[in-house]
Amino acid sequence: MITKDIETKNKVNFPLFVAKRIQKPDKATFSATVSRVGIITIALGVAVGIVALAVLLGFKNTISQKVFLFGSHIQVSKLSLNTSFEEPPIPLHTSVYDQWQQVEGLRHRQAVAHKAGILKTPDELQGIVLKGVGRDFDWALLQESMVEGRKITFSDTADAKELIISKVIANKMALRLNDEVLLYFVQQPPRVRKLKIVGIYETNLEEFDNQLVLGDIALVQKLNGWGRDSVGSYEYFVKDFEQLEPVSKNLYARLPNDLRMERVTERFRAVFEWLKLLDTNTAILLVLIFFVTAFNIASVLLVMMMERTPMVGLLKTLGSPNRQIRRVFFYVGMQLAIKGLVIGNVVGLGICWLQQRLEIIPLDPVNYFMDTVPITFDWVSVLLLNTGTLTLIALVLLIPTLIVARISPLRALTSK
């Protein structure tokens, strides 16, 4: 066979050589236009997929971090029938608190205490929940949501007379940084404290912004008549949130019988169910993009094959087997796919980079809990998207190339 001899003697990949020649058609031909359409379709599909994944991951990470700020990953408190904001006291120094590093997968732990109260200015009243925190509080999480101000400065001899409030509460009560406000606690006897606003945060989550303020845990301990060795609950953070389930089970096995544990996915079940729904929607979108892109390139290849029917007949006459000719058009399709993937990655990653840096597209924080479209780059997801797209296209390209076997050399050479 002539083509086989050429390939053997010259050590040339004959199907790849022909495919490269086919990829350089006259710009005025119909197949050239179809090729460009195929490349654009793949590029758009990949770009949309990259942007969709980056926005989804950004949205999930942003919402999750806001929840973790005041919810932590795991909360351990006293086992009781109390359903109020205020917890019964538990000892600060226990095995699960002091020896937390023995639980594999934990990143951080902190002790907190909650107490309900009323903020009062000359013109406004606002019910709040004071979350008392100490030196072990993870301020890095809060820093991402701080609008202005600083963290609380703690003292070894007295409770800090400082408060961090939300922007929502600050706007409602016309409070600004460094203002002083009265905080009343309804108890017997009633207590009042004058505190200074040292920080203002904003999460855009109503459950937090409408009522939660941060203060010194020593203040809560003093108001409740506790000693410095009593707290309301322990909060734990895991290194990898995907491992929350096994890590929490390991921690639970170490808890004394009078303590209970609650995961953040249980405390804020509605939020995480909503995020799972977003995963489903994005998965459906990506599947649709995959199949539309794959079958579009298959259609493009079919058109190119029909236009080159005489060439197929000539190759068969020269002795090329069907398998070799199918490889020619398979390489053509894969070259188009690779060009589309490259362009799609450049466009998709470029859009994500611009949005991340310049925050071009805004959002309504009332509905979306953030003021701009969030972007999170996950290179593993991008790699899987490209690999999945290329693999699916390769499988779909096998379908039109099967038509080569049905083309008769005589009819192909005599067709006009």
Brief account:
This protein has 416 residues and is α+β, with helices and mostly antiparallel strands. It is 52% helix and 18% strand.
The helix-strand sequence is: HHHEEHEEHEEHEEHEHEEHEHHHHHHH
**How many beta strands in the DSSP annotation?**
12
**What is the residue-averaged pLDDT?**
84
The major beta sheet can be summarized as: 10 strands, mixed
Structural write-up:
With 416 residues, the protein is of the alpha+beta class. Helix content is 52%, strand content 18%. Strands 1, 3, 4, 5, 6, 7, 8, 9, 11 and 12 form a 10-stranded mixed beta sheet that branches. A two-stranded antiparallel ribbon has the order 2-10. Strand 7 and strand 8 form a beta hairpin. The longest helix has 42 residues.
